[in-house]
Amino acid sequence: MTVTMTGLRRAKNGDWFSRKAIPDDVRDAYQSAYGIRREERFRLSTDKSPGEAKAAFAEWLADIEGRIGALRAAATGRALELSHRQLHDIAGRWYDWFVVQYADDQEPVEAWDFRYERYQDAVEASGGDYPYDDEEQGRSPRHAAKVKAVVLELSRLQTFLAGEGINLSSDTLDRLVDTLESDLVAAMALLRRRAGGDYRPDTHRERFPQSMPIIPANVKLAGWNVQEAFEAYVMERQPQPSTVNRWRVVFVDFNNFLDGRDISLVTDDDAVSWKDRLVAKGNMGARTINEVWLTSARTVFNWAKRQKKIATNPLEGVKVATGRQTPTKGAFQPEDIKTILTATLQPQGPRVSPHFRAAIRWVPWLCGYTGARVGEITQLRKQDIDQHPEGFWTLHITPEAGAVKGAMPRTVPLHDHLIEQGLIEFVRTMKDGPLFYDPSTKRKTKSDDRLNPTRAPYVLIRQKLGDWVRGL
What we know:
This protein folds into three domains: 9-207, no CATH class; 226-306, DNA polymerase, domain 1, CATH 1.10.150; 334-471, no CATH class. The protein contains 18 helices and six strands. The protein has helices spanning 27-34, 50-76, 84-101, 109-123, 134-137, 141-155, 157-164, 170-195, 226-237, 241-257, 268-281, 286-306, 334-344, 354-370, 374-378, 416-420, 423-429, 457-471, and strands at 9-10, 16-21, 39-44, 385-387, 393-397, 410-413. The longest helix has 27 residues, at 50-76. The N and C termini lie far apart (65 Å). Belongs to the 'phage' integrase family.
């Protein structure tokens, strides 16, 4: 049998990338269990360091090879040996199963107190206070066996394993019991709280790795993971490069969160869990999560639904709850506006290019008097400013010059103060073409990768203006 070596490399857009072929002998079983038939794909955003990428890749590869080994063992009836991650993966699946078993039961708080006392009696049989000082004191073989027997009984682990069709070696079963002992305590505590009417979110579940579900028999696979669905969306719809650049990180993150799962297997709970994780990170506001991250994911999933790839959109209705809107710390205050507009009137250094000097001088004023976006102004051309037959001056914002909100052109009358400052005289001195960038210095496209498009010159000027404003 030929063995194909799996290596880590860079994709065209700079992302870390790798593939792992699924061997022929387990291909059918792998597709039934994990939704992938021919190959698994690893992808990590380009901002990760080589060390981070190699560590994540090694964990991913070990996980895939562990799945292949487990499927081969299951086919031959051989008892399984599991890796550290796989043990925690099964512990997470057991945790969900255990909680579900009692979800609808009306057992009183006292029933869970009784179960916990049984466990505690076994732990304290030799005076230990596990789990707090177990590493220091340890357990004798006899004491450890007694605790494991109680954990095995209370957890109903054998019933769970039988239902999952998992046959573990005795050594692996011992390790699994040790692994989920603390999880059993957390599960009993959770169910005790719920029996008492406390339904706050279960934070303990977050510690487990993301699991691949068993595919229901009536589910037709889409053949795309989240990132591949985004790629297909871009190829068909051809959104603006700015949209692609802004959305790309969303789908890399969502795909990593789901471990590359087929989009037909993404559930409503997955969508909510991903949203909750974005909130928990604390580096984005609710508005950014709702309007960029969730909106972009919902848009692509709706498109996939129209392509008959999925039956429902799990992102539908998912959003971050927000209170009354208040001005953010980043909003411009009157003193900030004065600082920016005053700085536009100051002389710039000799190393500042003529076009960027013009952008500093006029773009903030044009944005202030027209309400247009910065990018809609930095893309302006000389022919976009002309005089109306009735004498006043107008500015045309048009898709012919670049990206326009809603792709709808509009004409805006210019304020008299702009005329007084000499805007028209500036425009008359310029050559035909863009006012705020030199088209002759436009960078050549490095690649034809639609998922990582080269930024247009007016976008680069917009970004430079942002840096200039922050520098003030």
